[in-house]
Amino acid sequence: MSRSEHPVARNGQHRSDQGGFGRVASLGGGVIGRSWTALFLAAGKSVAVFDPDPEAEARVRRAVEDAWPTLTRLGLTEHGDPDGLHFCADPRQAVEGAGFVQESVPERTALKHEVYAAVEPALGDGTVVASSASGLTLTEMQRGWRDPARFVLGHPFNPPHLVPLVEVMGNERTAPGVVDRARAFYESVGKVTIEVRREVPGHVANRLQAALWREAIHLVNEGVAGVEDVDTAVSAGPGLRWATTGPTQLFHLGAGDGGLAAFCERYADSFNRWFDSLGRPHLDRATAERLVAGLRPISEAHSVDELSHRRDELITGVLALLRNGPRSPS
Ligand SMILES: NC(=O)c1ccc[n+]([C@@H]2O[C@H](COP(=O)([O-])OP(=O)(O)OC[C@H]3O[C@@H](n4cnc5c(N)ncnc54)[C@H](O)[C@@H]3O)[C@@H](O)[C@H]2O)c1
């Protein structure tokens, strides 16, 4: 694969103010909102933040400071200015004059509706509003709007300043072109977008994570392997390949020159047998306790902060390589 073919590399060079979105508003300065804010600032946006928690401003400023060296290492701060950050006393003030609004308030339908009702009258004509929601559906959130034409799902992966993926979704109540404009905005700040075409719980990527974790739990429950070994089987095996491309393209490379068609023919019986024997565990209390016990050698040896730091350092290294790595011979 040539470097330019990888979506991360393709979106590595963001353009300042691509698509003319101008100022950005970030509603909610929690785990997700403050990470979004750091990314938007790095991309040269002026960012207005509203969060009613009096501690939020200090937390957001600290998060921006912490994220900046990583964003710089990834080449994402060329146009950036951490001083472009402004805190607002109410959500209307934050969205006034903003071309793009990212909503990252807690995952409660009534609260999200309250926020939409508050900001809707203050939005400019062309402003696009996206929700970070992981669990709520677009339809549920649209009920909080008088007119949801400008509103899309813009679901990131934690932490949004680091993990490139954003899942964007509109539906028949979304105005034509709004999904494309949202995708153009995200790509202008260095993100990689996909479009979710139909409403399903968990969108796309969380469903994929759930499918894999379900089988990981099944293998532990059945005594096939321990928690640490199952994790290693992912991170030291297929997980490494998945950072370069997805499973279907990888299998295209798994049966020589015949490509994917040959792979399907050769391995259909094996996969169908495996599909038929996959587990359907539930994350009940006993299962959770088994997983927690299985992880204890790691969780007792290292703090969550240490493990998170290591994860983020390694992700940064992989991303830097994907952006700047060797081109394939042409
Ligand atoms: N945490 C994750 O891993 C993750 C990943 C992807 C998407 N999301 C989604 O992002 C959204 C935010 O999640 P989070 O993890 O950042 O939650 P969080 O609880 O860390 O942060 C929410 C923030 O919103 C603030 N808030 C409360 N009421 C508000 C209001 N009326 N207006 C503005 N701000 C308000 C809170 O003070 C808090 O700082 C949720 O919809 C969640 O599903 C979370």
Lay out the secondary structure:
Layout: H1 7-10, E1 23-27, H2 31-42, E2 47-50, H3 56-73, E3 85-87, H4 91-95, E4 98-103, H5 109-119, E5 128-131, H6 138-142, E6 151-156, E7 165-169, H7 178-188, E8 192-195, H8 205-221, H9 227-235, H10 238-242, H11 247-252, H12 259-277, H13 285-301, H14 304-324
Parallel strand pairs: 1-2, 1-4, 2-3, 4-5, 5-6, 7-8
Antiparallel strand pairs: 6-7
The structure holds nicotinamide-adenine-dinucleotide (NAD).
Bound molecules: nicotinamide-adenine-dinucleotide
**Strand residue percentage:** 5-15%
Radius of gyration over C-alpha positions, nearest whole angstrom? 21 Å
| Structural class computed from helices and strand pairing | alpha/beta
Strand tally: 8
- As laid out across the biggest beta sheet, the strand order is 3-2-1-4-5-6-7-8
Main sheet specs:
8 strands, mixed
Identify low-pLDDT runs.
12-18
Distance between the termini: 10 Å
Q: Kindly state the percentage of residues in helix.
A: 40-55%
Assign an overall shape.
globular
* Topology order in helix (H) and strand (E) letters: HEHEHEHEHEHEEHEHHHHHHH
